[in-house]
Amino acid sequence: MPKRSQNFPYPPQCASKVIVVATPTGLPPSYMRRYARREQSGKSSWMPRSAPPNAMGGIEKMPASKHKVAMIGVGRMGTNHARGYELHPRCELVAAADPDRRNLDRFRERFGVTSVYESYQEMLANEEIDIAAPVLPVSVNPEVVIACAEAGVRAIFSEKPIAASLREADRMVEACRARNIPFASGDAWRNLPQFRQFRDMIDRGEVGEVRSINVYHPHDEISGGGCQSLGVMRLMAGDADVDWVVGWVKDDPFDDGDQGMGGVVRFSNGIEAFIHMNAVGKFGIEVNTSRAVFFSDWKTFRLWPLPDDPPNATVWPDNEVSGVFEHAADPVNMYGEDGRRLPQYRQRSSINAIVEALEQGREPWTSGDNMRKALEIGIALRESHRRGHVPVHLPLEDRSLRILPRPGRWLNKREVYGDEWYEDAMAAHQRPQ
Whole-prediction pTM value? Predict the structure, then answer.
């Protein structure tokens, strides 16, 4: 197990073959002190850390004023996002909108935000917003994201999946691009700094060229949860365009509903990716380069060097290089001292990613465009099965093609699961008495 860094820097630039310790979060010090724990005489204490460098190689500068964040949808997941923004030192919750009055009243009580609206249109018209955070059922996500862009917010961070159809995703991405608005889509694994660290190692030639990628995703959603692994797959392929895919689905290829899918993805740069639909004893992503093998189960990040005699080089388990990556560290305690649930590692990384994108004027790591292309890969896998497992070339011409998310993602969860389930889920944001 790698030792934990004592000052939690952002993943640094490192020379070839130099062992470095990466950040667990890449977050500013006042944010980190809530999660960095020190064991002392059997007791835990929260310790502040030094300021991390930013992704551009300099030191993060605190903005003159905090970024004003407005939530749209403050249900189960929206509350998680709001908690992350509340604890981020460069953000301030200023407003919220939700047609569910119970959610609004609960949000106002928990977060002390008095500007609450049952209409998001009214909120957009009345509030000055830096980051709009729509956390909504997928059925309404496209229209709300586009409305936020048209209202002139400075950045948008919505949830996954981005949309059902490619046409909707196209409209969302273009509405934001036309106005130079950073648009992030999804609290997702691609935001974890360790993946960017390994991608940087690839770009610097430290681990050779990427030859192939294996994605182990034995789930029943290629669009819902699966869009995350497809996004990381794209990152490891250098975000190259996809030339073609051959795919298959778990159930019915003529059903537009989300389901498990597998297949082969051939990128334009020659990299091949294999999506494993069935459980094979692995869960995560494996990247095979000319000089190393990288594997992550989304919590740990591991690296094995290859001998100097490819193409028949074999990885030996005992050759693993330790100390290169910090493992993802969720809070040891689920609830903070105030009795409220703490955001998890991925959530903190995702929120910090949109803040950095806004401050640096660039696309977020898990951009709307990335999630649009992940959706397109999923649709192409199914289309290949529909057409007899033939190669399907991208981009897809028919932009009306879609994957319908599961009911719990497509609709409001209160409608799908009922009041009792929903209220229990909302109560879980507070420590049980």
Answer: 0.85
